[in-house]
Amino acid sequence: MYNFDQIISRAGTDSVKYDGMKRFYTDAPEGAIAMWIADMDFAVAPEILEAMHERIEKKIFGYTGIFDESYYDILINWYKTRFGLEVKREEIVISNGVVPAVNVLAEVMTKEGDNIIITTPSYGPFFGAINKAKGRNALYNRLINTDGYYTMDFEDFEQKCKDPNTTLFILCNPHNPTGRIWTAEELTKIYEICTANGVGIISDEIHADLTRVNQKVVPIAKLFPDAKNIITCTAPSKTFNLAGNGHSNIFIRDEELRKEYMKAAGGASTNPFSIVATKAAYSQGHYWLDELRAYLDGNFEYIKQFLAEKLPEAVYTVPEGTYVAWIGLGAYGLSNEELEKKITQNGVVIESGRSFVDNADSYIRVNIACPLSVVKEAFNRIEKALKG
Predict the structure, then answer these.
(1) Do 229 and 194 meet the contact criterion of CB atoms below 8 Å apart?
(2) Does the chain have fewer CB atoms within 10 Å around its N or its C terminus?
(3) For the chain, what is the largest distance between any 2 Cα atoms, rounded to a whole number of angstroms?
(4) Which pTM does this prediction carry?
């Protein structure tokens, strides 16, 4: 039994979420609750901490690579056991993060003048990756919002894929920020449209482990085991609260693309603690993760009940995946900027729709991966902000 109710101070740890908060949210008062950037306020699983402590006892932290094949065996077993995804050893490429990997992939998989499709609302760094790749154009496939439940506009998606300049689609599964888990039928349609039009697929599945207890992600690469136009981006960072380790695993089936990626990325990048933490997470973290998912389900259910009672005009659906709540507050007549300002000044730092590129007016994203007592206090403050 793990204690997810424990409140742990992160002050003075150089945490972006806490120590860096005032740089990004200057209106945040003392004692503001940080519910913006997506890392958790839960203690890392003790099995992982033990492995990292053992590595510290080795006393030297020089240049580090992965030379123990058990690392790959553990990773492959996790994805086979949890998702039914068969990953080959040679397909695995190490990166210091999913976002850096997407930045490189966006450049090597396209050329100047090409279009890259993202679904909106969108995780902001996807748009950033397109901007970083010189001369590429972002095309928005605006998701259809039905009372807080999002689906793809496939007619629009196919039209954009048929543009001869469109060469890449960045998929997010589970989708950030809406929390949708795309069904096998939806993923099949995405793949068929992309493949028929020569469009590559980057599938960011960093939140794939973080689903509601009764939900499960189907990796698009599992559905199409021979497809070489699918790149899968994964990491232990969200699942096990290890974002500060800067470590991810990218699955690239196409050998030539893999070589191009490695050349552009400058080779694999890792550190002593990332390796042992990842091995411990994927070999011993099953029970911790299952308890975490159940705890997060409780937090989401509390929010559902709170909004129904206190803020009934809010638009909210319990997300199928991720640990962020996506809440529509258009009924309160405030812009994204006004929502962000009022809620921040009332002591809760969230992200408004302005952080999610497009198709996100009057929405807020709230990171609820924290003790339930903190969630309760935060939503009391949000209610005060909206009613005050």
Answers:
(1) yes
(2) N
(3) 59
(4) 0.96
Identify the H or E element spanning 194. Answer: helix 184-196
Query: What tokens appear for 64 in the block?
Result: 């580090």
Residue 61, both tokens = 């932290």
* pLDDT band at residue 388 under the 50/70/90 scheme: confident
- Name all domains of the chain by residue range, CATH numbers in brackets: 21-45+287-387 (3.90.1150.10), 61-284 (3.40.640.10)
pLDDT in tens, 100-125: 999 999 999 999 999 999 999 999 99
Euclidean distance between CA atoms 76 and 42, whole angstroms: 26
pLDDT tens digits, 53-92: 999 999 999 999 999 999 999 999 999 999 999 999 999 9
User: d(Cα 270, Cα 66) in Å, to the nearest integer?
Assistant: 8
Give the pLDDT confidence of 240-264 residue by residue, as tens digits: 999 999 999 999 999 999 999 999 9
Taking the C-alpha atoms of residue 307 and residue 89, their distance in angstroms, rounded to an integer, is: 47
CA separation for the pair 313, 52 (Å, rounded): 47
Nearest to 354 by CA among 127, 148, 160: 127
Please report, as a single letter, which amino acid is at residue 305.
Answer: Q
C-alpha–C-alpha distance, residues 44 and 307, integer Å: 30
Per-residue HEC secondary structure of 210-230 comes to: CECCCCCCCCHHHHCCCCCCE
Confidence label for 288 from pLDDT (cuts 50, 70 and 90): very high
Reported as type and span, the H/E element at residue 93 is strand 92-95
CA distances (Å), origin 297, targets 219, 265, 379? 22, 38, 16
